[in-house]
């Protein structure tokens, strides 16, 4: 026979027992483990009269009331005893009730009155929940308040303490695996380098406009695709989260808030890396103010994409299924963003998906940031024939065609005449319904919305309270 003492592990089979009538040694020393086990067996035989074996595989919370106000709660975990109770927890509970009734059968006894005044037994369910959430065993010694709810609060710590502990744990896990963030940062840097060298220093021509549109669409969609690495984070922690919240170790809101705050620093670094790699190399317009907005919209895109993937991780049960859903939905977002087909050309029965597309808002925001200057011209004179069947004709023929058009229209058109400005390009792309700052705020709002949905997914998807 062996017994193990555990001070921070609670068996699912739990009952509370006071051994106040245990005969104390003359020298006042605490009884040994063998004496306690023998006493439990003797009481069991005296109460039941059947000489049955002591219940096994249970944990007993034994407090010595004679040492008030300093109580000594501890747990005896009988894991390897050679006998067991066929009735399970029920027999142990019935035995405890019978033992308590026998012990306190004389209300006139002074020891009974003193024990009942000094102690209030915590109910089983509350003791288990409070023990797990506080990380220690809750003894029967309490204050004089008879309300169990006031003795054992639902949560042991306030929300900000829970957030601090959870955030500290997440940061420790991140520091233990720095290669995860390093690989993600490297992927963003490599993508930015490829885009920068592919679209190097774009000019203000019709071809340059088309290349700008392609770069912006691909860059914005890339920020969302690189957020897919957040999918397995919660899926790996799901069972830990369910076990800890089952005993009210912390609030679900604390987990969501701490998870969001911990993710922000890495998103800032990724946004800064991608922005500095691409903005100046591609030759985007706007100067320093344009770069700051470009950085903010990239950061908002990372925030919205990370929140979206985090929400999906709280809904889907498997990593591969989650990756399939993420890739498919992000492809739909890009399709309906307005790059492949403009807003005014999207069928009416699909226009609702256009406004649900996460890529739409950062894409349109960067477009407006790039083409907002009314003095900047992108098509001059004979450039009007570019990207048309007449683009391959000799230059002299283009000049004659330009003169013919001038006579027909009654407007003098030269090789330096501006024919298309940034506002014209925005109108051609159907980017006229929202300002660039509205696009930024809407993208940020999408991130908060998906975090809220993630909270409700945890609230509804983890109803695993221990009974």
UniProtKB/TrEMBL annotation:
One of its GO terms (cellular component) is membrane. This is ABC-2 type transporter transmembrane domain-containing protein. Pfam families: ABC2_membrane. Keywords: Membrane, Transmembrane, Transmembrane helix, Transport. InterPro entries: ABC2_TM, ABCG_transporters. It comes from the Eukaryota. Its main location: membrane. It is found in: Membrane. It comes from Malus domestica. GO terms for molecular function: ABC-type transporter activity. The chain crosses the membrane at residues 181-202, 214-235, 256-280, 292-312, 319-341, 440-461. It is a multi-pass membrane protein. Residues 164-371 form the ABC-2 type transporter transmembrane domain.
